[in-house]
Each structure stands twice: as C-alpha cells, then as structure tokens.
Amino acid sequence: MLDAAALHLAKLRILDAGASRHALSSYGLLIQHCADGGLLRHGLQLHCRLVLLSVIPDNFLGSKLISLYSRSGRLHDARLIFDAIPVKNLFSWNAMLLAYSVNQQPASFLRLFSSIPPSLRPDAFTISALLKSISAAAKEIHSLALRLGYHSADRFISNGLITAYLRISDPNSARKVFDRMPTRDIVSWNSIITGLSQEGHYSACIQLYQELKMGRTV
Fold first, then answer.
1. Is position 103 within any domain?
2. How many domains in the chain?
3. Rounded CA gap, 193 and 213, in Å?
4. Cβ(174)–Cβ(197) under 8 Å?
5. Would you state the pLDDT for residue 107?
6. What is the mean pLDDT of residues 123-152?
7. Is 30 exposed, middle or buried (CB count within 10 Å of its CB: 0-12, 13-18, 19+)?
8. In a domain? residue 155
9. How far apart, in whole angstroms, are the C-alpha atoms of residue 176 and residue 122?
10. Integer Cα distance of 206 and 170 in angstroms
C-alpha cells in the first residue's frame, strides 16, 4: 500500500502526463488503490481530473471507478459510471453487479443481471455474485412476509421459504423456518428432509423421518 506522500507524488506525476495511454493506465491503478484503501477524497480528485481531460471511461477505468464509488456506498455514482461506458465488456458488468451485491441490493442486481446482452457469457465470478444476491433476496422476501403479517402459521408461505432457502444452499435458515411452523403438512416434511439430504445433513434427515413416522405431520 502506498503511504500518503507516495500517493500524492504519484498523483502529481500522472496529472502532468495528461491523457496518454500510459497515464490512463496509471489513473486506473491509483483509483483502485484508493478504492482498496478507502481513500475516497483522493479517488474523487483523480476522477475530477479525468473529467477535465474529457476522458470517457473505458472498461478498465470504468470498473475502477465503479469499485471506488461502490465501496463508499455511492451506488448512484457507480451506476452513472457504468452507464457512461460506451461498449461494456463482462469485466464492467461484473464490477457493477458486484457493487449491488456487496451493498445488499438484490433487486437492482437481478434487474441488471437480466439485462446482460446475449453476446456476453456470464463467468464464474458473475454466477457467484448471483448466488449471493439470490440469498439476500430470499432473506428480503422473508422479512417482507413478516412485515406484512404472514408469520410461521402460514404453511403456504413457510413451505415456499423452506424451498427457497434450500435452493440457495442455506439449510440453516430453512430449518429455522421449519422448526417455527406450529403446524406442518406433508409438503413441509418432504421439502426439509429432501433438502437436508441433498446438503449432506443425514443425521438430521433420519431424526426428522422418525418424527414423521411417529405421526408428527401436524
């Protein structure tokens, strides 16, 4: 990590270099350094200089600026940068998707993910971020159901939550929903036993099956 003096010197050097290819590469590296170190003020100064130089962010610079703003919680600014990139590659898409993911904005994440053009094939990084956002979305839906007054007594909603949590490999949350249900039907039991089995929780499955055989379906 650069100390404050070294960072200031590096900024002065690239400011003198204008908008050459080498200078823009240095801008990107310094902006990423600012993002990693939480140095928003320095990053803003670099971005302002790019604006003064009439530089339109490409995928490299754009992704660094998105990282800078998203790590500071400034998602609106991050999205403005993303939208300004003329021709976006998967690197830029992933940067903006990650911004929504780490800031726990699953709805925005899913809207953006659904708009990825067919010409771009999501990679492992994209899918990993998607799974995290789906997990966050499931928890948001659960919280919404509780705020609307749908509690564990509603078997239809509880069964749906069990399925949702198990589909995103969150057996602990699924089991909590199941255990809080005052009444359960065969769908509840089948969902939790099948899901826990697929996750490798065999002892819990045997215990639940024994309870089911004892007639504790309701």
1. no
2. 1
3. 13
4. no
5. 85
6. 80
7. buried
8. yes
9. 33
10. 19
Q: Residue 135 and residue 189: Cα distance in Å, rounded?
A: 22
Is 50 a member of any domain?
no
Q: Position 43: which residue type?
A: G
The model's pLDDT over 168-197, given as tens digits with 9 standing for 90+, comes to 888 898 999 999 998 888 999 998 999 899
Residue at token pair 């004892």: 214
Domain-embedded: residue 4: no
pLDDT at residue 216 tops 80: no
Q: What is the mean pLDDT of residues 33-41?
A: 89
Q: CA end-to-end span of the chain, whole Å?
A: 60
- The pLDDT-based confidence of 67 (bands split at 50, 70, 90) is very high
Q: What is the DSSP string of 130-193?
A: HHHHHHHHHHHHHHHHHHTT--TT-HHHHHHHHHHHHHTT-HHHHHHHHHH-SS--HHHHHHHH
**For residue 121, which amino acid is it?**
R
**Which residue range(s) make up the domain with 166?**
150-218
Please answer whether residues 137 and 168 qualify as being in contact, where contact means their C-beta atoms are separated by less than 8 angstroms: no
Q: Quick one: which H or E segment has residue 69?
A: helix 59-70
